[in-house]
């Protein structure tokens, strides 16, 4: 089985691209979605989060705006939250891998793949990237997002240029959705036909489209 990691900074298109891998028949584990599930009403992490950050949960689960205010920009608080959340996400990821052990390929969509060392545990890393102004416009269009909140999140993430430098495969999301989809379909076909090594050589010789610098 080929285990692919998918990463990219906020708004670069991880979820959209993960959906394209799923459409191509690749089982996808979505770490952000898992966090949201664990923090939703009745979620397994609600008691621990309420104990550590009083007043940040209610009948609907975690109040994400409030919890975000409590931890974004406060490194010690964020570390406490991550110590609650990340082990639970890791357990869900292991269960996903066990469930799909017979698949030829799986994709782990993990925003902090490089930051938390997960890149060593996958066979290859796919990075999604678009020009910074495109990224900013996408994120600022989201309800409840402000420029300040975006900057705080970006400050926690490895810069896009470094992610691209460390990528095995780059998927350009600054183009039309159809073009991105075609790149994903081509990559999946190449990986299925030839495996990771050959495709890395193939990507280096530019047959898989790369984002512009
Ligand atoms: C702080 C919280 C409550 C904010 O929730 P909110 O709904 O506003 O944002 P959302 O979860 O959709 O994330 C927005 C963006 O921030 C990124 N992000 C979230 N947590 C972190 C983090 N610890 N470090 C860097 N980036 C992060 C996400 O990947 C995404 O790109 C939430 O993100 C959270 O609980 N974070 C801690 C868990 C975590 O580390 N998740 C990221 C990967 S598993
Ligand atoms: N070529 C493209 N490829 C991918 N996404 C695109 C493209 N063109 C436009 N988009 C849009 O950009 C947005 C990307 O958002 P998406 O939620 O996929 O990003 P993300 O990296 O998962 O964000 P976050 O880190 O906040 O979870 C989507 O609304 C998507 O439809």
UniProtKB/TrEMBL annotation:
Record's GO cellular component terms: cytoplasm
Binding site for ATP: 11-16
EC numbers for this chain: 2.7.1.24
Catalytic activity: 3'-dephospho-CoA + ATP = ADP + CoA + H(+)
Pathway terms, separated by semicolons: Cofactor biosynthesis; coenzyme A biosynthesis; CoA from (R)-pantothenate: step 5/5
Main location: cytoplasm
UniProt xrefs under InterPro entries: Depp_CoAkinase, P-loop_NTPase
Assigned keywords, A-Z: ATP-binding, Coenzyme A biosynthesis, Cytoplasm, Kinase, Nucleotide-binding, Transferase
Subcellular location: Cytoplasm
Enzyme class, first EC level, given as a word: transferase
Molecular function GO labels: ATP binding; dephospho-CoA kinase activity
GO BP annotations, alphabetical order: coenzyme A biosynthetic process
HAMAP family: Dephospho_CoA_kinase
Similarity annotation: Belongs to the CoaE family.
UniProt function note: Catalyzes the phosphorylation of the 3'-hydroxyl group of dephosphocoenzyme A to form coenzyme A.
NCBIfam families registered for this protein in UniProt: dephospho-CoA kinase
Name this polypeptide is given: Dephospho-CoA kinase
Species annotation: Sphingomonas prati
Gene behind the chain: coaE
């Amino acid at each position: 089985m080929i285990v692919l990691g998918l990463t990219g900074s906020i708004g670069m298109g991880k979820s959209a691209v993960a959906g394209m891998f799923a459409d191509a028949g690749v089982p996808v584990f979505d770490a952000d979605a898992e966090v949201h599930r664990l923090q939703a009403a009745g979620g397994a992490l609600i008691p621990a989060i309420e104990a550590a950050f009083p007043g940040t949960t209610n009948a609907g689960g975690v109040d994400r705006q409030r919890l975000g205010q409590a931890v974004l920009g406060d490194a010690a608080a964020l570390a406490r939250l991550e110590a609650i959340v990340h082990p639970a996400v890791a357990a869900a990821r292991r269960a996903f891998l066990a469930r799909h052990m017979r698949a030829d390929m799986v994709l782990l969509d993990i925003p902090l793949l490089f930051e938390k060392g997960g890149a060593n545990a996958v066979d290859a890393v796919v990075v999604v990237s678009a020009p910074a102004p495109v990224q900013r416009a996408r994120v600022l269009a989201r309800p409840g997002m402000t420029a300040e909140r975006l900057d705080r999140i970006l400050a926690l993430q490895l810069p896009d240029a470094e992610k691209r430098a460390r990528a095995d495969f780059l998927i350009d999301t600054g183009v039309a959705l159809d073009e991105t989809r075609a790149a994903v379909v081509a990559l999946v076909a190449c990986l299925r036909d030839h495996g990771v090594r050959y495709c890395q050589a193939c990507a280096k010789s530019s047959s898989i489209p790369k984002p512009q610098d």
